[in-house]
Write a structure and sequence with these properties.
Number of strands: 6
Distance between the termini: 132 Å
Radius of gyration: 41 Å
Structural class: alpha+beta
Largest sheet: 3 strands, antiparallel
Number of domains: 2
């Protein structure tokens, strides 16, 4: 009897299929030439990166040393100015002039340049305003009137910002009386 002849009975479920063993594909042969090229490129990038980092550390160390030497140069400049009152043949004056020239040669070789001069426009990226002076025709607003401490750069790197006094027009005094408004025409 089949299920169609006997509608009340159910057919037993079919037996489970035998488990299929998973067949893993064979591992491809390693492509040694390609792996070698990748490894060689990676090593070359590593070498270039470490060289750049080493050069950067050298520039950082050089800038640090130059920054630490600047106060000595400033002090020598002030001492040299104070001995200018001595006779030109005085050995102390000649010694200070010689030292100052050597320092200037050293700073030139290291590409260290001063960044502030009286009369030039104030530049906030390399200067620090430490005072204000009244602006005039000779000293327009926004110009440096005095260099309190010289600033220096080496290449594109700021070693020390210049400390300067900047010309500025004073704001109007709020307590000062305003000029009287003109009287309307026809009124007395």
């Amino acid at each position: 009897m089949t299920d169609a002849e006997n509608p009340g009975t159910e057919a037993p479920p079919p037996p489970p299929a035998p488990p299929v063993e998973a067949v893993e594909p064979a591992a491809p042969e390693p492509d040694w030439a390609t792996q070698y090229k990748y490894l060689l490129a990676e090593f070359d990038n590593f070498r270039k990166r470490t060289e750049r980092e080493r050069e950067q550390r050298g520039r950082d160390a050089r800038a640090l040393v130059l920054r630490e030497l600047l106060p000595f140069y400033d002090a020598l400049g002030k001492a040299s100015e104070s001995v200018r009152s001595l006779a030109e043949t005085d050995p102390v004056r000649r010694g200070f002039e010689l030292l100052l020239r050597e320092w200037e040669r050293f700073l030139d070789r290291e590409e260290v340049t001063a960044i502030a001069r009286a009369g030039e426009l104030f530049r906030a990226e390399v200067m620090e305003a430490v005072g204000e002076a009244r602006a005039s025709k000779a000293r327009p607003e926004g110009t440096v009137t005095e260099v309190v401490q010289q600033g220096y750069i080496s290449g594109a790197r700021l070693l020390r910002p210049a400390r300067v006094v900047v010309a500025r027009t004073p704001p109007p005094d709020p307590a000062a009386p305003e000029s009287p408004a003109p009287a309307p025409e026809g009124s007395l």
